[in-house]
Design brief:
alpha/beta; TIM Barrel; 7-stranded parallel beta sheet; 10 helices; 44% helix; globular
């Protein structure tokens, strides 16, 4: 993957914005209505040790103002002094167009986040890769809802590589081990593996100390970089960064 990622990624964007007062139904709308709050979150994550941050644009493919959201979210991450900007796109529609918007806005990579279905993730990865034609790396994000080692799951990294992905991100999951188990299995596979386990909601099931232990295990297994999903804040990022020092 032609992207100089360090070990620590950022934590959750949506849940952290919600903790700061955003509407839980659409916290990333703050990229349009409360831009300084979004900038501040990115700055806090970088100060905690994140070497890349994820834009507040996960919901853009499900929004009528998706293009505007992506432009604003990429700009805010850049203005916050983020070393690398990963433009987030969750499930929905128009991924190829939105990826092109993110490219033009100055993103360093596209990250497709929290896709539960393998076929849909492969299809969207193909769509985005075709739209970008190699201009930006595409990180394909899969959300395993259990820790089972199925044949379909084992074949997914190869299918994503063939679809144009530069790396695979295993993220969110069930909050109890599905992300860690899947990332460890895939670490020796055909694509670099990034991991974003959930800290757990509604309460932080995984404390920062637990995240540090998980980070050490994932690093030793060959996982390229780690961040946090739902419930993971700056203290979790600080723990991840410390485990990679």
């Amino acid at each position: 993957m032609d992207l100089p990622l360090g070990w620590a990624l950022d934590g959750a964007v949506g849940t952290e914005l919600t903790r700061r007062g955003a509407d839980a139904r659409d916290p990333e709308r703050w990229a349009l209505t409360e831009p300084e709050e979004v900038r501040a979150l990115h700055r806090v994550m970088v100060q905690a040790g994140a070497t890349a941050t994820t834009t507040a644009s996960f919901a853009a493919p499900r929004s009528t103002d998706g293009d505007e959201r992506v432009r604003a979210a990429v700009r805010l991450a850049r203005e916050a002094g983020t070393p690398l900007v990963l433009a987030a796109l969750g499930p929905g529609e128009g991924h190829g167009r939105l990826a092109s918007v993110a490219r033009d806005a100055g993103a360093d990579a596209i990250v497709l986040e929290t896709f539960v279905g393998a076929p849909s993730l492969v299809r969207v990865t193909e769509e985005v890769s075709a739209a970008l034609a190699g201009a930006l790396p595409v990180i394909a994000g899969y959300c395993p809802l259990d820790a089972e080692a199925t044949d379909e799951r084992a074949a997914l990294p190869r299918r994503l590589r063939d679809a144009g992905a530069a790396a695979v991100l295993v993220g969110c999951g069930d909050g109890r081990g599905s992300v860690v188990a899947t990332a460890q299995r895939w670490a020796a596979g055909p694509l670099p593996v990034l991991a974003r386990p959930s800290a757990g909601l509604p309460r932080a099931i995984r404390t920062p100390a637990t995240f540090a232990a998980v980070a050490a295990d994932l690093r030793s297994a060959g996982v390229r970089a780690m961040g946090g999903c739902c419930g993971a804040g700056p203290d979790h990022v600080r723990a991840i960064a410390g485990a990679g020092a």
